[in-house]
Amino acid sequence: MPRSDQVAPELVEDPQRLATVLQALAGEDRYGIDTEFHLERTYHPRLALVQVAWADRVALLDPLAVDISPLGEVLRGPGTAVVHAADQDLTVLDAACGAVPSSLFDTQVAAGFLGMSTPSLSRLTERMLRVTLPKSDRLTDWVARPLTAKQLTYAAGDVAHLLALHDVMVERLRALGRLDWALDECSQVLSAPRRPAVPEEAWWRIRDHRQLRGPARGVAQEVAAWRERRAAELDLPRRSVLSDLALSAIVHRAPRSRAELQAVRGVEARHLANGAASEILAAVARGQALPADELRLPPEVREERAEPAFVAVASGLVRQIADEQRFDTSLLATRADLSDLLNGVTGRLDHGWRRQLVGDPVRRLLSGEVALAVQPGRGLVLEQRSGVPASLGAEPGAGAEDGADAVGAVAAGAVADAATRSDAVAGAATRSDAVVGVPAGEAVGGTGA
Question: Of 1, 104, 178, 217, which has the fewest Cβ atoms less than 10 A away?
């Protein structure tokens, strides 16, 4: 039987053929899926094509010709959807079909467990399968009809090799003992909240919004919320309703009349048409009078709460672990993850494989149990501490304030005493030469495959 990457794609443009395809998909234990959509001219994603592949077939479903909402039954079924970089596809499928897959294997996520950093589908296919995909045209118009032969070939290529990739990647992940880790991470992608935009939180996207104070915050909230609602109602990009420049300028100028509004930088006549001018001025007035308890403040940036010196040292340790374990660094831990750990906030580094590989080694370092040092030819290693503080090189009484900056930054963190912290940050404590961890792959990380 030919594989899905060896057959010509079928373009589905009527309900009968769609029903036949969905019936075939319903009996499969896995299928590849991808979407093509546009956001350039609309507020809501405009779905233009859905590509599916299974055992010996590839089908291209045209949502502009046929209602594809019945695809939701397949998505809710027991089959595993194999997708590359699934996040946006899940959002679009949820909107179009009212469902997301019940089970997911994201090839881009899984690639991180094989040491690849968010590879494109074409790069992953070349590396894993030695197959070169058709080159894409980033400017192609997927909404235009009829679709060209080149577009159909490219669209089919996005799914034709997904099942073959799934086979190879599962085999490699299983051999490394990381298959369960990868499947767990794919489940996290699937369960991530995809809530609709909250208009009153739209002002969080304004550049330098954290520098706003007083009534300007209320104005930002109300005007940005107005723009969000109007864009959604008209199904237009936000910039078509009011540009980011105009929004920011209105927040800072707080115009009170149409004349003042027209004089604001970035505001164009089209932004004020069809009653928009009076609505913007009303939003400005509401914002200036907004009670404090109705202001929706952005959550505190987690990275801002942790000492930069600690985050930098922990980041270096994570990079070393990633190199030794052949992991994508960003998959292991983000700066926000490290900040949570440093501040005692329960997060991803407190559970599962991330705790084993990253959380526990970082905790040992920051508690002063071990120190970080450079070993020639091997990079960073964790070593048993001697407990004897080492000088950072400043002369007594000369430049003491400047020389203590790093130590002071460390001492303000979550570790018990300043000497312990300077050891952890500098990695320069008197060494016992007892390296923590025996196998090379375990020198800084937890037990890894």
Answer: 1
Q: Are 425 and 414 in contact (CB under 8 A)?
A: no
- Picking from 128, 135, 131, 78, the residue whose alpha carbon sits closest to that of residue 108 is 128
* Measured CA distances, 396 to 177, 388, 393, 406 (Å): 52, 18, 9, 16
- Render pLDDT for 326-365 as a digit per residue (tens, 0 to 9): 999 999 999 989 999 998 999 999 999 999 999 999 999 9
> Would you identify the CATH topology of the domain 199-294?
DNA polymerase; domain 1 (1.10.150)
101-158 pLDDT, tens digit per residue, is 999 999 999 999 999 999 999 999 999 999 999 887 778 999 999 999 999 999 999 9
DSSP 8-state symbol, 427: -
- Give the separation between CA 405 and CA 379, rounded to whole angstroms: 25
DSSP letters along 286-332, please? HHHT--GGG--PPPPPGGGGS-HHHHHHHHHHHHHHHHHHT--HHHH
Which residues are bridge partners to 34 per DSSP?
A: 51
Residue 189 has pLDDT above 70, yes or no: yes
Domain ranges (residues) in the chain: 4-191, 199-294, 302-442
Say which residues have a Cβ less than 8 Å from residue 174's Cβ, sequence separation at least 6.
none
> What is the value of pTM for the model shown?
0.83
Superfamily of domain 4-191: Ribonuclease H-like superfamily/Ribonuclease H (3.30.420.10)
Nearest Cα neighbor of 189 from 36, 86, 72 is 86
With tokens 């164009």, the residue in question is 268
Name the phi and psi angles at 207, rounded to 5.
-60, 135
Evaluate whether 321 touches 357 at the Cβ level (below 8 Å): yes
In whole angstroms, give the CA distance from residue 79 to residue 83.
13
